[in-house]
Specification:
- The structure is a single chain.
- With 576 residues, this protein is an alpha+beta fold.
- Among the domains are: 134 residues, 3-Layer(aba) Sandwich (D-Maltodextrin-Binding Protein, domain 2), CATH 3.40.190.10; 234 residues, Dipeptide-binding Protein, domain 3 (Roll), CATH 3.10.105.
- It has 17 helices and 23 strands.
- The strands form 6 sheets. Strands 13, 14, 15, 16, 17, 18 and 19 form a 7-stranded mixed beta sheet that branches. Strands 1, 8, 9, 10, 11 and 12 form a 6-stranded mixed beta sheet that branches. Strands 4-5-7-6 form a 4-stranded antiparallel beta sheet, with helices on one face.
- Helix 13 links the parallel strand 16 and strand 17.
- It is globular.
Length: 576
């Protein structure tokens, strides 16, 4: 999100800071080689499988380092860069036929080091993203209109007819109508285009959950340390991830400098310990912890200013309200909760004003559709207009919903939040705010690794409210902020990101219409208007457009990825 891809973990800044630095970290001449160490506290990657990757940590630790996609993203780039592809797509047949040419001679790692990437491998990679055992969260949003997808998903067809590989270097995609993010190549800059050889991977893709990730072959500058037979030796979930040079990678064919020789992720660290070690040791960059602890960061900006980097994340923080759970199926109850929430107080749990700007709708600044949705001021709905709780207004909406005295009197609502600080404090603040009008929560705080995979991403879990969520644009498009989360066609059994389980046929039709637009002004207007509609329905409570902070050792030169919400781009970062 990013589920950018998007990412649900976006590192926050501290409210007492006045420092705002965009782009790179400390600066200095890049050094080739060396080992960088990154300390994780939240469990690291969610999955080894490229077809599953959708979150910030997945992209940072595996997606941008170990694999090549049809299109990649340079650190400051907002448009896709040809990677496996030789150039941007060409469209014909009124935009319904898209052709991509790929490079020849790109090799896989062992045990397939004698093989080169072919477009048939990309075809299979796209197809397997629709397999339930892969658990992809965005394929339906961006590739669901490819001809033959429905027959493939229903089992009527063994392949997707609209994805064709007429020869080893040509990929052809057929759609029933023009799809702007495919014709532009933006949706082809996602991990579903990482090549996967069908004859090698298919045996791992059988069963309830694919195990391909544990045996995958690599095309990028790095690979997970392995035994050369397709078995990962450099990975222990939540404990370690070791990346080493991929001997099959050809630097001459890749735009990424890939400066490090070795990248080591070590998990299970306390956030305070991790932050202090990063600042006081050598060869280190900050990891996946949600925010550097206040005391450590305050000291850093006083005495180690050059080691702190803050920039807008291009994402938001929000609370999801499940419309399938009573009484959240009533729009006035949802609006009441929106009016009841004190957005300013929630921001304080993460550090205060420098953490970011209070949100008034879903699409964040600098993403197409932001201005059309109302900009910073917002669309003007009364239930999102106050930066603090508006209890009288919340009571009015509860009365409209049938609660005569303006207080909730129904059963407890199953609510989940992240157990790690500062998300822990955010969840507890929300629980306290809800109690002011009688809302009782069956409140559970769980590790981030299970918050999504076992609860919020699984419709069968019947979670009423997911408190500590965030979303970032997949590729600088308003569509990527709206379509995955609010189109009913995208609700899936696992990996589901339509947390509110919205399935309104009229809204679905408007989203589908927006996907066919190609004129930039029309695209921005369409997604901005849709943002207004979903905000009006209060499927969520967006409370922050946040910032991202990174810490680095004095001899580390961290480079941030605008595509990945300001996380470190480890293929451009280096030692000084």
């Amino acid at each position: 999100m990013s589920m950018r891809r998007v990412p649900l973990i976006v590192i926050a800044a501290l409210g007492v800071l006045a420092l705002v630095v965009a782009g790179c970290g400390g600066g200095g001449k890049a050094k080739k080689g060396g080992t960088v160490t990154i300390l994780d506290t939240e469990g690291g990657i969610d999955s080894l499988d490229p077809g599953y990757w959708y979150y910030q940590t997945d992209y940072q630790e595996m997606g941008q380092t170990t694999q090549r996609w049809l299109y990649g993203w340079k650190p400051d780039g907002t448009t896709p860069t040809p990677d496996l592809a030789t150039g941007l797509p060409t469209a014909s047949n009124g935009g319904k036929t898209v052709t991509v040419k790929i490079r020849s001679g790109i090799k896989y790692s062992a045990p397939l080091q004698s093989r080169t990437v072919k477009t048939a491998d990309i075809k299979y990679a796209l197809e397997r993203c629709f397999l339930p055992q892969v658990g992809n969260g965005y394929a339906a949003s961006y590739y669901g209109d490819i001809t033959g997808v429905s027959d493939f998903q229903s089992g009527k067809a063994k392949e997707i007819s609209g994805i064709q590989a007429p020869n080893d270097t040509t990929l052809v995609i057929q759609t029933a109508k023009p799809i702007g993010v495919i014709t532009s190549g933006r949706a082809l800059g996602m991990p579903c285009t990482i090549p996967i050889p069908k004859d090698y991977a298919q045996k791992y893709d059988k069963g309830k959950t694919s195990t391909y990730g544990e045996h995958q072959v690599f095309t990028g500058p790095y690979m997970v340390e392995n035994d050369g037979k397709g078995n990962m030796t450099g990975y222990q979930p939540g404990k370690k991830l070791t990346l080493v040079r991929n001997p099959s990678w050809d630097r001459a064919t890749d735009y990424r400098p890939a400066n490090f020789n070795r990248i080591e992720f070590k998990g299970g660290f306390d956030a305070t310990v991790a932050a202090r070690k990063t600042l006081t040791s050598s060869n280190m960059l900050s990891g996946d912890y949600a925010a550097p602890p206040v005391a450590v960061l305050k000291q850093a900006v006083t005495s180690r200013k050059s080691q702190v980097s803050i920039s807008p994340s291009g994402g938001n923080r929000y609370i999801a309200l499940n419309t399938k759970i009573k009484p959240l199926d009533n729009v006035n109850v949802r609006r009441a909760i929106s009016a009841l929430v004190d957005r300013t107080a929630l921001r304080q749990t993460r550090g205060g004003p420098t953490v970011g700007v209070l949100a008034t709708h879903f699409i964040p600044p600098d993403i197409e559709g932001f201005a059309d949705a109302g900009g910073a001021k917002g669309p003007g709905f009364d239930f999102v207009s106050s930066p603090t709780a508006n209890i009288p207004l919340a009571q009015q909406y509860l009365k409209k919903a049938g609660f005569a005295n303006g207080r909730y009197s129904g059963p407890p609502l199953l609510t989940f939040a992240d157990s790690a600080p500062p998300a822990k404090e955010t969840g507890e603040a929300f629980q306290s705010q809800m109690a002011k009008l009688g809302f009782k929560l069956q409140f559970r705080q769980v590790p981030h690794s299970t918050l999504l995979s076992k609860f919020c991403n699984v419709p069968k879990a019947a979670v009423a409210i997911c408190v500590t969520l965030g979303w970032g644009a997949d590729f600088f498009s308003g569509q990527s902020m709206i379509d995955p989360l609010f189109n009913g066609k995208n609700i899936v059994p696992t990996g589901n990101v339509n947390f509110a389980e919205v399935n309104d046929p009229k809204l679905n039709a408007k989203i589908d219409a927006g996907k066919t637009l190609t004129d930039p002004a029309a695209v921005a207007k369409a997604w901005g208007q849709l943002d207004r509609e979903v905000t009006d329905q209060s499927y969520f409570i967006a409370w922050l457009w946040d910032n991202n902070v990174g810490l680095e050792s004095t001899n580390a030169n961290g480079v941030k990825s605008k595509f990945n919400s300001g996380a470190w781009d480890l293929t451009y970062s280096s030692l000084k």
